[in-house]
Design brief:
FAD/NAD(P)-binding domain, Enolase-like, domain 1, five-stranded parallel beta sheet
């Protein structure tokens, strides 16, 4: 059996490794257009800020390590075309500028996603000081450029996870940071109450926050010196574009592989596309949302790794299904922990769910142990049954890991009553006798 994998990071290498362990005789060829395989992309902002100074800690497994497993990893190889009838990929060797063709029995599309470049005048010029952050190479460029003490003013376009993490990273290395977001709130996966707390924290750390504002033009020759928006202008020494990501699927445009409107590959729960023997997963594909009961785009590393494992198991004949996800994610914003899982109020409203919400402040642990902090919790729940549908948490201590408790609660379809009765641990350093999760559930029950 000959398997070709397009993409050598999370999904692709998870699938390849799983197949090789289950079938050592399988021939596996991985085409990766970059120079790295299997690296911790979510750790890049902390490398830029020098929280982690060792870039090798980001490299989970190198191409050479995979080759020792008899997985044929070919970096700097970009797949340009897939011929479904011939079961063949057309590949461009970036290094020597040649083209090759490779047959396959099974194909895994794990091509990931690339940063969205907004329609800003002059942005496509090759400015020395305009960056995106997706790869270790990107992080190295940003880190080197910002190491110059004369680089003082950094403007960040986009207030999602990467944008906010880069705000902190730049502030940590003593840059003056401005963040500009087209929408009217920070971190659009959370609701206004949580976004407002993040907003306040940024301003406490001398970050200029500009919401409902769109960048229109960049001005400069080799470097951008000024950025023009629909509300003003900014003198800049560096710009980081963090306006979201788009699936890398252009090479599928002339095929019969079913794609969503944003270009993401559509699969079933076995991670199979509509074409026999072709699988897809990770940031280039949609994912089933358990609560919304439909496919959505959730480009998260957790999902990508799980999907890769499922693909590998199915190619080995194990007949596995990926049950789906609920969008569980967390982020650190200075000394705040922010977590979210399930549906937000905005998602519930847009999907015609009969819901109610509560917003609660509860203690991280008992008051008779030092450094107690308050956790702000917003819960979205089904109106009649009081089943928990979504939760968002923010606080200086205990918010992120409690998001995982809520994720489990939502996955199990627990009601507020069942949450109230959970047997959660209690000790003064870690929790109150009624945990913050249960305090929030009890507020629902009191309504």
């Amino acid at each position: 059996m000959k398997i070709v994998v397009i993409g050598g990071v999370a999904t692709g290498m998870s699938a390849a490794s799983k197949i090789k362990r289950g079938n050592p005789n399988a021939e596996i060829i991985v085409f990766e257009k970059g120079i790295e395989t299997s690296y911790g992309a979510c750790g890049l902002p902390y490398y830029v800020s020098n929280v982690n100074e060792d870039v090798n800690l980001l490299r989970i497994r190198t191409p050479e390590e995979f080759r020792k497993q008899n997985i044929d990893v070919r970096i700097l190889h970009e797949v340009k075309e897939v011929n479904m009838e011939e079961k063949e990929v057309v590949v461009y060797n970036i290094l020597n500028k040649t083209e090759l063709r490779e047959k396959f029995d099974k194909l895994i599309i794990a091509s990931g996603a690339s940063p969205i470049i907004p329609p800003i005048k002059n942005i496509k010029r090759k400015y020395e000081n305009v960056f995106t952050l997706k790869t270790i190479e990107d992080a190295d460029k940003i880190k080197e450029y910002l190491s110059d003490d004369n680089i003082k003013n950094v403007l960040i376009i986009g207030a999602g996870y990467i944008g906010l993490e880069m705000v902190e990273a730049c502030a940590e290395i003593n840059k003056k940071v401005t963040i500009v977001e087209m929408k009217n709130l920070l971190l659009s996966s959370v609701d206004e109450e949580i976004s407002d707390i993040i907003h306040k924290k940024l301003e406490e750390n001398n970050v200029s926050v500009r919401l409902s504002e769109a960048i229109k033009e960049m001005i400069g020759e080799d470097k951008v010196s000024q950025v023009i928006s629909d509300k003003g202008q900014y003198n800049v020494d560096a710009v980081i574009v963090a306006a979201g990501v788009r699936p890398n699927t252009n090479f599928l445009k002339n095929t019969d592989v079913e794609l969503a409107r944003n270009g993401a590959v559509i699969t079933n729960k076995k991670m199979e596309t509509n074409i026999k023997d072709i699988y897809a997963g990770g940031d280039c594909s949609l994912i089933y949302h358990k609560i919304l009961n439909k496919n959505v785009y959730l480009p998260l590393g957790t999902n990508a790794n799980k999907q890769g494992k499922i693909i590998g198991e199915n190619i080995l004949g194990e007949n596995r299904e990926f049950p789906g996800a609920i969008g569980t994610a967390a982020i650190k914003v200075f000394d705040l922990e922010v977590g979210r899982t399930g549906v937000s109020e905005k998602e519930a409203r847009e999907n015609n769910i009969d819901y109610e919400t509560v917003f609660v402040k509860a203690p991280s642990h008992a008051p008779y142990y030092p450094n107690q902090k308050m956790i702000s919790i917003k819960i979205v729940y089904e109106k009649n049954t009081k089943t928990i549908l979504g939760a968002q948490l923010v606080g200086e201590k205990g918010a992120a890991l409690r998001t995982d408790i809520f994720s489990t609660i939502i996955d199990a379809k627990y009601t507020a009553r069942e949450v109230s009765n959970l047997d959660l641990c209690y000790a003064p350093p870690f929790a109150y006798v009624w945990d913050a999760v249960q305090i929030a559930a009890n507020v629902i029950l009191s309504k």
